[in-house]
UniProtKB/TrEMBL annotation:
SUPFAM superfamilies: Winged helix' DNA-binding domain. The keyword Transcription regulation applies. Pfam families: MarR (PF01047). Residues 1-135 form the HTH marR-type domain. This is MarR family winged helix-turn-helix transcriptional regulator. Keywords: DNA-binding, Transcription, Transcription regulation. It comes from Dactylosporangium vinaceum.
Length: 138
């Protein structure tokens, strides 16, 4: 029997390959797609660097390069936090919000296709497994 985590890793790589192929015209890496999608689900497309790093599962040093590239492409802006000058706030630009919407749309379509043949409740069960794995790994 293949360990569940190995199956999850394979599914992750297949999903990333599918998304980068489906969104190839955006010329974004899987990490950049991930960062935009995660930032888009924050309130108003705004979050701190720390929040984005935690949500995207990216180390701060790696996230710096991702944010630099997305900022250079005018997909997000970086600025000071209004109450804590040590904290950096990231905001999707209008162009970044449009790109993030495409990324999330592609994710939703893949998810819809993947779940179409599964029994009702399978997605909720899987979400529970993912939460348990996340908690166990922390």
């Amino acid at each position: 029997m293949v360990p569940l985590l190995l199956d999850l890793q394979r599914a992750t790589h297949a999903t990333l390959h599918h998304l980068t192929t489906a969104l190839a015209d955006l010329h974004l890496s899987p990490s950049e797609l991930n960062a935009l999608a995660n930032l888009a689900v924050f309130t108003d497309g705004t979050g701190t660097v720390s929040e984005l790093g935690a949500a995207a599962g990216v180390r701060p040093t790696t996230l710096t390069g991702i944010v630099d590239r997305l900022e250079q492409r005018d997909l997000l802006t970086r600025g000071p936090h209004p109450r804590d000058r040590r904290t950096v706030v990231l905001r999707l630009t209008p162009a970044g919000a449009a790109v993030a919407a495409r990324v999330i749309g592609a994710m939703a379509e893949l998810e819809r296709r993947a779940l179409a043949s599964l029994p009702s409740g399978a997605a909720a069960d899987f979400a529970g497994v993912l939460r348990a794995l996340t908690e166990a790994a922390q």
